Amino acid sequence: MSKRRVFDIDFPTEPNDPSEPKMPPAETAVQKPDQRMRKPSEARRGPMATAISENADALRSRAEAEKKIRDENDRLAHEFVRLKKLGLVVDRIPVGRIGATKLIRDRREGRDPDLDELKASIKSIGLSNPIRVEENEDGTYELIQGYRRLRAYVELLRETEDEAYEHIPAGLVAKGDSLQSLYRRMVDENLVRRDISFAEMAQLALSYTQDEGTGAKSLEDAVSDLYASAGRQKKIYIRHFAQLLGAVGDLLKFPEAIPRALGLELRKRLETDAASIPELREALTQARAETEEAELTVLRGFLEGKRKPAPRAAAAPRPGVAKTTLRCTVPAGTVRCQARDGKIEMAMERDFSEIDRHKLEDAIAAFFAALEEQD
């Protein structure tokens, strides 16, 4: 015989008399103090439900934190790229991991009379202007700007064996720039220097046209691409020097030493008398000049032989004013001099505007010092 279980169920009932006070539910009467603030749904939760809820909250907090980290990383990455494009990200790069083959340099190998001064400055105060490089996929770097600075570091490392010159400060250039843009970076930096010669700029333009990656189809395109920031007259000079190098450049050992005036006059002579090009080439071949001055003498001699000056009457000196006229031969050529009261004039086939101002001042001071000694 089965036993029946009896459960007492209390159903809340509303009193018939509205004035009769209502009794609180039985559950409320036995609530503990810490349970009175809980919601009914929370009061009925079991341990498993609570654990699941807490885990979900933790996952949600972790996802929010990870999103903030990703957002910050993205911001820093964009800022890093922006600074790289501006050349403001600088690191110390091993000189042995830097190559200089991607761009044809506008500096000739071998001789650089000012390199010793640059090395002395680096030894004294360090490198004030970092070079600029582009990082390759294999962890090496390609030089964009600063050929002379890199060369100075390499020579200092070889001469001193000092570990300080094993790494050079370098600005990191962002990847993705076109070849034309990289050439412009190199050229624009060099245009502000006064010691870069027209022959060096012209040679770079000629090499640029031969580089299939640049897209330049003519010398005009090369000059326009490379020297877009240069003035119109300067571009004309570069093209004229390029035409001169195209005619006899393979025979010139010191083209960078050719003054602007001499180069322009040579180019004009060869353009008006194309038949004289073999004559100049023969003169350069026979001379086998080993110095700048010897080669410049050949070039000036060619012009002197072609020049047919018209006879000109000598200017009469002013009454009462003494004048001395003479010619003086120096290693650089022939100097024509006129001396009179309070004035001395010297003229020769050389562009003195290209000489450094301080060097001119020293030369003038030495000139007058020599005059005083003879007195």
UniProtKB/TrEMBL annotation:
SUPFAM superfamilies: ParB/Sulfiredoxin
InterPro entries in the record: Chromosome_partition/occlusion, ParB/Sulfiredoxin_sf, ParB_N, RepB_N
Sequence ranges assigned to domain ParB-like N-terminal in this UniProt record: 96-191
Gene3D superfamilies: 3.90.1530.30
Keyword Cell inner membrane: no
Region entry Disordered, spans: 1-59
Basic and acidic residues: compositionally biased ranges: 33-45
Keywords assigned by UniProt, alphabetized: Plasmid
Protein name: ParB N-terminal domain-containing protein
Source species: Leisingera caerulea (Phaeobacter caeruleus)
